[in-house]
């Protein structure tokens, strides 16, 4: 593909970039995707290891969404293992369902107290509701308040401190809202109607999406080496480019951190292979109150008919982000970072054909489906008017 004929440049071949590229190609546009790593998929990248187990290189990924458009779009490129994610947490020496639900209550409280608490919870919030821990903590009923303090202390306090490396009070409350207290016996981690794991892996799904005659993929190339931003004009290989540029990397890096670096939280993900059929009771076990890691994932439990005799797990040790040394896994949401992001967004808005997309470029704690929804929305707004 010659650069002259390109309509859209996408920087980054993760969930955001590949979804946008495919949608743009289907709108008749010629798309160049530039990825600095040697593989596509971004943080959703997985690979089949020598044991026949799909390893999620950048931490466990389970697809879930309420959005039928996103689900139908992806279903064109993969068959699904209709996996429903269940997580256990080690609390007071017992493995109980996380999010904390009525089964967790049963496991941790004597029958005499559990029945009364259950009734009160349901009378107050309604059966089946998903109550953020901060809402439960704000209850003015003494018994519910005491229960909320117990759940906060056992499930959230120490996990959040480990994960974010700060006083949990300093973490934006929307972060723990992701894992509400569930007033039912539904042990699933997500309540979304569409859930699953691509049968042949995420990387294969993204490869199928990128497989289009109008998509040209350039790996191991930093997009910032090909484009230059100057006084409202984007230059591609030194010449003004009037097509659209969709950038999905860290937004501060695009502007050489001129306003100061945006902070990210990272993980040291340590893998261990072993000669066992099954290592633990659920695909993911959380350790809110023990160890320096937050959770252990056993990958074969995400798979249909996994091989016998071997298993691979990973432990996630949260740590600070250091550019070039580890990955910007999580954005850190607070008033200061929102203001800083706003300054980068204003710089980006100075280029009418530059679009920030995805978890790092939009600086949002986005799950995969939200990134894809955003990508489909952006491309529709650009080319389907
Ligand atoms: P990324 O995946 O970060 O992709 C950005 C791409 O851009 C990367 O490939 C990067 O190499 C490339 N890039 C950056 N800068 C440049 C440049 N200058 N030039 C060229 N290329 C560049 N979501 C879920 O829905 N379910 C889950 O279970 C889930 N689990 C998660 C677990 C962990 C540990 C983490 C960290 C995230 C999880 N997520 C999950 C979120 C999910 O990973 C993200 O929503 C998704 O990967 C974001 O895609 P993206 O394309 O925006 O960003
Ligand atoms: N969380 C917690 N205890 C848990 C699980 C989650 O305190 O057992 C909190 C913690 O602050 C975490 C947030 O809820 O960062 C979001 O959890 P989620 O599982 O969504 O995190 P992710 O999978 O994105 O790492």
UniProtKB/TrEMBL annotation:
Protein EC: 5.4.99.9
Keyword Metal-binding listed: no
InterPro entries listed in its UniProt record: UDP-GALP_mutase (IPR004379), UDP-GalPyranose_mutase_C (IPR015899)
Cellular component, GO annotation: cytosol
Domain UDP-galactopyranose mutase C-terminal stretches: 154-365
Cofactors demanded by this protein: FAD
GO molecular function: flavin adenine dinucleotide binding; UDP-galactopyranose mutase activity
Keywords: FAD, Flavoprotein, Isomerase
Top EC category: isomerase
Source organism, top-level taxon: Bacteria
Pfam families per UniProt: GLF, NAD_binding_8
Assigned protein family: Belongs to the UDP-galactopyranose/dTDP-fucopyranose mutase family.
NCBIfam families in the record: UDP-GALP_mutase (TIGR00031)
Name of the protein: UDP-galactopyranose mutase
């Amino acid at each position: 593909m010659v650069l002259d004929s390109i309509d859209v440049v996408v920087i980054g071949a993760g969930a955001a970039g590949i979804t946008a590229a495919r949608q743009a190609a289907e709108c008749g546009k010629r798309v160049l995707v530039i990825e600095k790593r040697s593989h596509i998929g971004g943080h959703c990248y997985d690979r089949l290891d020598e044991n026949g187990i799909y390893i999620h290189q950048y931490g466990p990924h389970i697809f879930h969404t309420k959005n039928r458009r996103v689900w139908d779009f992806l279903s064109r490129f993969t068959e699904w293992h209709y996996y429903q994610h269940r997580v256990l947490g080690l609390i007071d020496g017992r493995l109980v369902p996380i999010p904390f639900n009525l089964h967790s209550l049963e496991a941790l409280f004597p029958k005499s107290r559990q029945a009364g608490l259950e009734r009160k919870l349901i009378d107050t919030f309604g059966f089946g509701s998903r109550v953020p821990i901060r809402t439960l903590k704000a209850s003015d009923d003494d018994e519910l308040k005491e229960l909320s303090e117990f759940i906060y202390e056992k499930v959230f306090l120490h996990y959040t401190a480990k994960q974010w490396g700060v006083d949990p009070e300093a973490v934006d409350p929307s972060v723990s809202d992701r894992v509400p207290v569930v007033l039912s016996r539904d042990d699933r981690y997500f309540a979304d109607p569409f859930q699953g794991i691509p049968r042949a892996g995420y990387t294969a799904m993204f490869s199928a999406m990128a497989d289009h005659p109008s998509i040209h993929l350039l790996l191991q190339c930093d997009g910032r080496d090909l484009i230059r931003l100057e006084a409202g004009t984007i230059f591609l290989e030194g010449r003004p480019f009037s097509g659209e540029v969709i950038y999905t990397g860290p937004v501060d890096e695009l502007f050489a951190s001129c306003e100061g670096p945006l902070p990210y939280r990272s993980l040291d993900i340590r893998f261990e292979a072993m000669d066992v059929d099954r290592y633990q009771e659920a695909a993911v076990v959380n350790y809110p109150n023990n160890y320096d890691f937050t959770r252990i994932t056993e990958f074969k439990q995400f798979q249909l008919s996994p091989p016998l005799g071997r298993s691979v797990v990973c432990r996630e040790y949260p740590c600070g982000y250091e550019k070039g040394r580890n990955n910007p896994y999580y954005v850190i949401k607070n008033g200061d970072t929102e203001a800083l992001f706003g300054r980068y967004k204003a710089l980006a808005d100075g280029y009418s054909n530059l679009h920030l997309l995805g978890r790092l470029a939009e600086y949002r704690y986005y799950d995969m489906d939200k990134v894809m929804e955003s990508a489909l929305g952006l491309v529709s707004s650009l080319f389907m008017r």
